[in-house]
Amino acid sequence: SITSSISVYGAGHSGPSRVITAGVRGPYALSVRSAKLYVANYGAATVTVYPHGSTQPQQTLFRGMKSPEALAFDHAGNLFVANWGNNSVTVYAPGKGKPIRTIKLGISAPDSLAFDSNGNLYVANHHANSVTVYAPGQKSPAGRIKNAVREPLSVISSSSNLYVLNYLTNTVTVYDEATLKLVDTISDGIACPSAM
Fold this sequence. Notes:
Blueprint: E1 6-9, E2 16-20, E3 27-33, E4 36-41, E5 46-51, E6 59-61, E7 68-73, E8 79-83, E9 88-92, E10 101-103, E11 110-115, E12 121-125, E13 130-134, E14 143-145, E15 152-158, E16 161-166, E17 171-176, E18 182-186
Antiparallel strand pairs: 1-2, 3-4, 4-5, 5-6, 7-8, 8-9, 9-10, 11-12, 12-13, 13-14, 15-16, 16-17, 17-18
């Protein structure tokens, strides 16, 4: 059965302060931006947006989506949605319901999104065993990482390095963002990783 709720806990509380059910179907990813909660609903092919403290959606995004799995925001506040079901990333301007751009080139079953400090977008492609890199505002890849990437589930940019969680090999591989070269592989204590 598909989960259809999100429990919200206050600091220091063991029970939920509220439960969100309106607009929720198969929630896969959550993100908070400008005092709003964004929920990627894999089961409904939507992203629902909730004002702080609310259990009712203020907005529901659906155009261009199919099985959304990840959310990320760029420096301008644009929402990027990774769509597993149609091998794309849809981009929405703040408060708008229609995509301003759809990225498809170089994407295969996207699992995770990340931005670096220069505004480059990184997309973890589960089926292609790769991470594609897009310069700000671009729809074509500026680069691709394949070395040691195996079923990537998560990407994080930090301190000029990109960290890639590889489900198939139980590793986190580390790449220099400037060169996209492998600089380290972390494997100690990792088993069946799913998120970073």
